[in-house]
Design a protein that fits this description.
By secondary structure, the chain is α/β, with parallel strands linked by helices. Helices cover 51% and strands 11% of the residues. Strands 13-12-11-10-14-15 form a 6-stranded parallel sheet. It has a 4-stranded antiparallel sheet with strand order 7-4-3-8, with helices on one face. α24 (595-604) links the parallel β11 (578-585) and β12 (610-616). α4 (67-80) crosses α25, α11 packs antiparallel against α13 and α16 packs antiparallel against α18. The model is unreliable at 22-26 and 121-145 (pLDDT under 50).
Length: 712
Amino acid sequence: MKDSKEFAVELFDALARRRRHNADRIASISIDELQDFWSQISDQSFDSRLQIFFDMVDKNADGRINEEEVKEIIMLSASANKLSKLKEQAEEYAALIMEELDPEKLGYIELWQLETLLLQRDTYMNYSQALSFTSQALSQNLALRKKSPFQKYRQKIEFFFDENWQRVWVILLWIMAMAGLFTWKFIQYKHKYAYHVMGYCLLTAKGAAETLKLNMALILLPVCRNTITWLRSTRLGWIVPFDDNINFHKTIAAAIVIGVVLHVGNHLACDFPRLINASPAKFAPLLGDFHGKQPTYVDLVKGVEGVTGVIMVILMTIAFTLATHWFRRNVLKLPRPFNRLTGFNAFWYSHHLFVIVYILLIIHGIFLYLQHKWYAKSTWMYLSVPVLLYAGERTLRAFRSGFYSPLILKVAIYPGNVLTFHVSKPRNFRYKSGQYIFVQCPAVSPFEWHPFSITSAPSDDYVSVHIRTLGDWTRELKRVFSEACEPPAGDKSGLLRADETTKKRYMLPKLLVDGPYGAPAEDYRKYDILLLVGLGIGATPFISVLKDMINNIKQAEELPKPATPIDSKKRKPMRTTNAYFYWVTREQGSFDWFKGIMNEVAEFDHKRVIEMHNYLTSVYEEGDARSALITMVQALNHAKHGVDILSGTRVRTHFARPNWKKVFTRICNKHPSATVGVFYCGAPVLAKELKQLSQEYSQKGATKFDFHKEHF
């Protein structure tokens, strides 16, 4: 805000000088003068913006500006747009402008010289305009006939089922299973004498208990990640939405909460009071179920069944509460020391309370008042397979990760609090682009494992991840590795670094990795066209995809041309013909994270298979007076040196945020009848918009968009 204020002061001074006022003496302005100023500021023509900037630095109003004055306005523009690196290079870019416009070395430039530069606007304005491809009229691919409300409604329903049929049948099957079990147990207990004493409260409690057994078993399956990674690669992956495993896990958790409320509520508030208040004659047939005497309320609660039930409810309440969005994502700000109840650590450790819950659940299911036959006590039957499978998975993880500690080849700390690790590839470690691994650092915590997308390609001889410090664990991880890093030498990247050339590389803490695990982005080869969208660190799963595509392009160029048509057929080309990568970030320093892949794309992708679009949201949108000079310098530097001044690569950086409708329209026009895989990793808000646009454009024409969001 301070930087923008400085910019506004300079702008006001320039406009005042236009009216031959002394800006220092102006204490107030009239409405007409304010309106005149505003009309000049809001004029978005490039000529008008250029005139304004010229006036801002031409403080003596002689129609000339020197190199120092050009540097000053570049620094003002950089400050207003939070571009610290640009401020450091302001002198270089001022010299560039003077070199271009003052070839005779007069030491100053005039407005007509800047106007001469405008004659070349076609050269750089096309470069500057984001999504310059527009169509005067939509192609036939998007041509629509008017439809009646009924046709539109029917089309929406058809599209919904076409998009969600996997989820629909799984959820319906699950609901039917719960309804069936509830009904079966409800009817079963209605034929028991206890029903005449405790009424429908007992039936509801027992029906809910049966659904709880099912859901307490099912909730473990979505977090058996090794099993899911294997299953999603089989034919079963076509009919079961394994990528929604975490969402299904949360949905089951919600059903468990409802089941607990029905089961515990009906017991404590309804059938227990009816049982203890029943007349001796009415209770007599139940004496055998309650050790020969009518219990009191305290007897029911302090029994094995009551104690285990109460403890389970307490532990589950803690675990479920700390797993909610407000606690896990630190949305809820609590005073010390209660702030320790928020964040990932609290979620992680509280979830391990379920080890006790499952033990108590089995005990709870054995000591039943109204059921005495062992084969009718079915809790252990529901839980045995899922618990053994999950325990096997955790054991496999412990052996697999503990058996091999990878060698850390490189550590770098980048602007924006991002760490990157390059580790040696474990033996038989095979993965696909888009997958992720779990990372543990015993020096930070011997128990915590955190998931991170793999940013290296499968053909690389190392495995890399990029980690942003967002929580307690990642902050401590950065601190621990910072102590073993040092400033980079030469042209190597990073604020701090440790590799084979640094002295402290032997001081690096130990890292353990576990995986790989399946994720939506690994299915990118199934699509004709890719639209990859990452917000900030959310670009990581797609960097591996881009690296894989570049490696395939390199390999294709190195292979000899097929001698015969038969040889040509043997080579199976990738189905994916084009990829559009949109990376939206707030900080200029973020571009350092993936400079390598951006330069590789520019160097090796001669057929323009991959299009990369970087968007920097800290810069005011193109057309705003505060970014006009940056746009000009950016285009001029790219035309002269082929390098973008913001990213430091050959990839063009756009300002503000993408116009997603234009992005989808462009892809539709360029690729009619194609199947487009839309992969997104980032905040949920944009996910909703991208999913909606995918549905809308799929309905409009022949180009189909299939939306996927990364989940961890």
